[in-house]
């Protein structure tokens, strides 16, 4: 059962113990792959790709029963481990909450990927390629019958996408990942309509997850992309593969080439 936006909001108000030493121990580590350090690093990398410009987008990592979340309103290239919100996955209550910052409005959407896809990492980008693909679909310029799903086939990078987003990345003979789409599979990413407030997208995203059990991502019309993976590596490489495919799709469209 998904935590509603209201639940998350309520927990935001109920829980505030970020001043305790215990809470700060959750974000202090010399390990660069500790979620608090890793999210800060990923934010800087994604900023250089134009994915999280102007404080947009977001990154979250699940670490055991803790969900680490980059805050709202912080310049992504300046993100610090001390900026991180940490939520208990079971109670959906914040166990660390920086006083001066606001939790990300992406939080309920990230939780949906954790709960419904057993994800270990979730990334939200405002990539221009993702936005352009939704505009082409919205205007029915590729497949006039379908504006709510992006579909493409016979592009090599499709093989970088796992079924459901968090499928097995075991390698079969020939180097193929057994849980991934094949070259002749059609990649389908559902597109949901944007809302004035990010958290109001949660219900539509959950519906899309149910309707498209094989999808690793959801596009948001005129907005961007939510993509997940069973761990950071899978979420990040799928975000990269999709951005590569979206850019190709936009350029193909400009050349009058069909996606499917
Ligand atoms: Zn957004």
UniProtKB/TrEMBL annotation:
<dbReference type="GO" id="GO:0005737">
    <property type="term" value="C:cytoplasm"/>
</dbReference>
<comment type="pathway">
    <text>Amino-acid biosynthesis; L-methionine biosynthesis via salvage pathway; L-methionine from S-methyl-5-thio-alpha-D-ribose 1-phosphate: step 2/6.</text>
</comment>
<keyword id="KW-0028">Amino-acid biosynthesis</keyword>
<comment type="function">
    <text>Catalyzes the dehydration of methylthioribulose-1-phosphate (MTRu-1-P) into 2,3-diketo-5-methylthiopentyl-1-phosphate (DK-MTP-1-P).</text>
</comment>
<keyword id="KW-0486">Methionine biosynthesis</keyword>
<feature type="binding site">
    <location>
        <position position="106"/>
    </location>
    <ligand>
        <name>substrate</name>
    </ligand>
</feature>
<keyword id="KW-0456">Lyase</keyword>
<feature type="region of interest" description="Disordered">
    <location>
        <begin position="1"/>
        <end position="29"/>
    </location>
</feature>
<feature type="binding site">
    <location>
        <position position="223"/>
    </location>
    <ligand>
        <name>Zn(2+)</name>
    </ligand>
</feature>
<dbReference type="InterPro" id="IPR017714">
    <property type="entry name" value="MethylthioRu-1-P_deHdtase_MtnB"/>
</dbReference>
<dbReference type="GO" id="GO:0046570">
    <property type="term" value="F:methylthioribulose 1-phosphate dehydratase activity"/>
</dbReference>
<dbReference type="Pfam" id="PF00596">
    <property type="entry name" value="Aldolase_II"/>
</dbReference>
<dbReference type="GO" id="GO:0008270">
    <property type="term" value="F:zinc ion binding"/>
</dbReference>
<dbReference type="InterPro" id="IPR036409">
    <property type="entry name" value="Aldolase_II/adducin_N_sf"/>
</dbReference>
<keyword id="KW-0963">Cytoplasm</keyword>
<comment type="similarity">
    <text>Belongs to the aldolase class II family. MtnB subfamily.</text>
</comment>
<keyword id="KW-0479">Metal-binding</keyword>
<feature type="domain" description="Class II aldolase/adducin N-terminal">
    <location>
        <begin position="37"/>
        <end position="250"/>
    </location>
</feature>
<dbReference type="InterPro" id="IPR001303">
    <property type="entry name" value="Aldolase_II/adducin_N"/>
</dbReference>
<feature type="binding site">
    <location>
        <position position="124"/>
    </location>
    <ligand>
        <name>Zn(2+)</name>
    </ligand>
</feature>
<feature type="active site" description="Proton donor/acceptor">
    <location>
        <position position="156"/>
    </location>
</feature>
<protein>
    <recommendedName>
        <fullName>Methylthioribulose-1-phosphate dehydratase</fullName>
        <ecNumber>4.2.1.109</ecNumber>
    </recommendedName>
</protein>
<dbReference type="InterPro" id="IPR027514">
    <property type="entry name" value="Salvage_MtnB_euk"/>
</dbReference>
<feature type="binding site">
    <location>
        <position position="126"/>
    </location>
    <ligand>
        <name>Zn(2+)</name>
    </ligand>
</feature>
<keyword id="KW-0862">Zinc</keyword>
<feature type="compositionally biased region" description="Polar residues">
    <location>
        <begin position="1"/>
        <end position="12"/>
    </location>
</feature>
<dbReference type="GO" id="GO:0019509">
    <property type="term" value="P:L-methionine salvage from methylthioadenosine"/>
</dbReference>
């Amino acid at each position: 059962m998904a935590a509603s936006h209201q639940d998350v909001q309520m927990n935001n108000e109920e829980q505030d113990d970020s001043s305790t030493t215990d809470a700060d121990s959750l974000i202090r580590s010399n390990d660069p792959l500790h979620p608090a350090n890793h999210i800060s690093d990923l934010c800087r990398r994604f900023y250089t790709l134009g994915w999280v410009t102007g404080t947009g987008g977001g990154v979250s990592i699940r670490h055991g029963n803790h969900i680490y979340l980059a805050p709202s309103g912080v310049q992504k290239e300046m993100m610090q481990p001390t900026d991180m919100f940490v939520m208990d996955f079971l109670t959906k209550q914040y166990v660390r909450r920086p006083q001066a910052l606001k939790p990300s409005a992406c939080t309920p959407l990230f939780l949906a990927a954790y709960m419904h896809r057993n994800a270990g990492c979730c990334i939200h980008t405002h990539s221009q390629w993702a936005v352009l693909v939704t505009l082409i679909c919205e205007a029915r310029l590729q497949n006039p019958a379908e504006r709510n799903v992006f579909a493409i086939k016979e592009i090599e990078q499709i093989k970088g996408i796992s079924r459901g987003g968090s499928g097995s990345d075991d390698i079969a003979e020939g180097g193929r990942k057994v849980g991934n789409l094949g070259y002749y599979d059609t990649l389908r990413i559902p597109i949901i309509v944007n809302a004035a407030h990010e958290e109001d997208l949660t219900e539509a995203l959950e519906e899309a997850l149910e309707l498209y059990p094989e999808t690793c991502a959801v596009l948001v019309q005129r907005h961007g992309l939510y993509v997940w993976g069973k761990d950071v590596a899978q979420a990040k490489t799928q975000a990269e593969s999709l951005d590569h495919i979206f850019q190709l799709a936009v350029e193909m469209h400009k050349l009058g080439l069909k996606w499917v």
